């Protein structure tokens, strides 16, 4: 919109609603407020005594998927007994064929071995990647430790390219630490 102000001595043109740098601005990736709001909700879901661990984890997956616009699939994998493989325990989003993932295979399997967070901004750039859906563009996997042992992980798939930041890592680490506090041997 252009507003033209006519003063006795000069004419002033004012431009509104157009920012020449707008297309260069980074996409809004940060959801700090959402994450801070979600933390107590995650803790509340985990404190429901009447629910099993799988029910609580499923509720967390659904909460995260519904609350964060670029979280399109959310799941928890855990070490499958004594086997060197991960097994899907809970998820929200499209069902996946990848219920079992051998250690070392894909992003999840690599995290099971490395014990480190793994952010993948663009899955096409990864050789060791297991595709769940052609819509997935990015992924983040954060290991879940109980008494210092990597027993599982949270896995997020996104249909957006490069959506994850250190704030996602911090939030998902909080989620995993909260889950770790309520896990006991009878759950496995
Ligand atoms: N993409 C994962 C496999 C699990 S799906 O994302 C649900 C991987 O490469 O390990």
Overview of the molecule:
This protein has helices at residues 32-46, 53-67, 106-114, 166-182; strands spanning 2-6, 11-15, 73-79, 85-92, 100-102, 118-120, 138-146, 149-158. With 188 residues, it is of the alpha+beta class. The radius of gyration is 22 Å and the shape is globular. The model is unreliable at 14-29 (pLDDT under 50). The structure holds methionine sulfoxide (SME).
CATH class: Alpha Beta
The helicity comes to: 25-40%
Helix count? 4
Q: What count of structural domains?
A: 1
- Compute the CA-based radius of gyration: 22 Å
Global outline:
globular
Kindly report the name of the CATH homologous superfamily: GAF domain
Give the number of DSSP strands: 8
The ligands found in this model are: methionine sulfoxide
How many angstroms does the end-to-end distance come to? 63 Å
Mean pLDDT: 88
Order of helices and strands: EEHHEEEHEEEH
Classification by helices and strands: alpha+beta
Low-confidence stretches: 14-29
Features:
Beta-Lactamase; 8 strands; six-stranded antiparallel beta sheet; single chain; two-stranded antiparallel sheet; alpha+beta; 30% helix; 4 helices; 188 residues; binds methionine sulfoxide
What layout of secondary structure does this protein have?
Layout: E1 2-6, E2 11-15, H1 32-46, H2 53-67, E3 73-79, E4 85-92, E5 100-102, H3 106-114, E6 118-120, E7 138-146, E8 149-158, H4 166-182
Antiparallel strand pairs: 1-2, 3-4, 3-8, 4-5, 6-7, 7-8
Residues 73, 75, 96, 98, 101, 106-109, 129-130, 132, 139, 155, 157 line the site of methionine sulfoxide.
């Amino acid at each position: 919109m252009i507003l033209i102000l006519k003063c006795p001595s000069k004419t002033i043109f004012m431009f509104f609603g157009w920012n020449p740098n707008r297309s260069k601005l980074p996409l809004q990736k940060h959801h700090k407020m959402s994450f801070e709001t979600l933390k107590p909700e995650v803790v509340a879901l985990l404190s429901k005594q009447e629910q099993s661990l799988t029910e609580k984890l499923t509720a967390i997956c659904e909460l995260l998927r519904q609350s964060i616009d670029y979280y399109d699939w959310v799941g928890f994998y855990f070490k499958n007994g004594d086997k060197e493989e991960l097994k899907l325990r809970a998820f929200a989003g499209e069902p996946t064929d990848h219920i079992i993932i051998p250690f070392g295979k894909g992003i999840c399997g690599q995290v099971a071995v490395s014990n480190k967070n793994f952010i993948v901004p663009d899955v096409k750039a990864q050789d060791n990647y297991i595709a769940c859906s052609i819509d997935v563009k990015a992924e983040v996997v954060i290991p879940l430790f109980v008494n210092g042992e990597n027993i599982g992980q949270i896995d997020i798939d996104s249909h957006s390219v490069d959506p994850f930041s250190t704030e996602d890592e911090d939030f998902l680490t909080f989620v995993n630490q909260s889950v770790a506090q309520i896990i006991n041997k009878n759950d496995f």
